[in-house]
């Protein structure tokens, strides 16, 4: 007999339970001084925890971590020591600190992010990199919204819109640009990155973050340009393979889909977000972490996924149920 199909409520409840376990797993590694670095662990992998822990009510642990970051890792220019100018990771930490009202950390980190934006509105993955990338641009744009900097967010969105409009093929999404604002493709380098609808296990976050930024800006401005862009991003993801919302890189797209469902009521978008929630439940390891066959089997992977999956899962659930 086939397994009974779970209801939406059951799927959401199972994801919430998995997230609780994932957060407890993360917190078990926090040091007494609040830090999140120890022998054998990466020195640039504590940027997601404050966001994750604040969502689940672990405020004391999150504040202790931010104290440790401020006292040991935050530099005069707002950059985090050992992070090598990683724009994506700084945007993560900023959002976690901002949500907790930790402006002593959030404000300098946001100022560092502002220093990374190019004249065309785009951001690199790492400060000074001569190639603009969707992940840095869109996630920094979302961070700007939390800072109340609508102008910066719109400028980042304009860059994402330009990237979207320049796409030469319906079955691919190229996610890099040159500093002059033109798309970066194989004509420029054989290493030009893209998502191919015919392949699995891809960097879906490049589209997911861009779609999320468009949804958030539509909520603020009601400008149909942003909603139409979000629709196009969603339709592209729907053309991708079966792991489009069920892969370790799919959580950003899931939250974007949840926001799109909240705005439009498109049931396909809700199912897409639920598909990721199911993925979290079905692939969680007994220890509460996550690791997959195409990744190294090391603690960093287990902890990092536990952090971001808790965010994508809970944020998606809250966003979807606000409409339900």
What is the element layout, followed by pairings?
Elements: H1 8-27, H2 49-55, H3 59-72, H4 87-99, H5 103-114, E1 131-133, H6 134-146, H7 150-165, E2 172-174, E3 176-178, E4 194-196, H8 205-221, H9 224-239, H10 251-264, H11 267-283, H12 299-323
Antiparallel strand pairs: 1-3, 2-4
Helix content: 55-70%
- What average pLDDT do the residues reach? 96
Strand content: under 5%
What strand order characterises the main sheet? 1-3
**Low-pLDDT segments, ≥5 res:** none
Order of helices and strands: HHHHHEHHEEEHHHHH
Structure description:
The chain contains twelve helices and four strands, in the order H-H-H-H-H-E-H-H-E-E-E-H-H-H-H-H. The protein has 324 residues and is mainly alpha-helical. The strands form two sheets. It has a two-stranded antiparallel sheet with strand order 1-3. A two-stranded antiparallel sheet has the order 2-4. Helix 2 packs parallel to helix 4, helix 8 packs antiparallel against helix 9 and helix 9 packs across helix 10. The longest helix is centred in the C-terminal third of the chain and has 25 residues. The radius of gyration is 19 Å and the shape is globular. The model has no long low-confidence stretch (mean pLDDT 96).
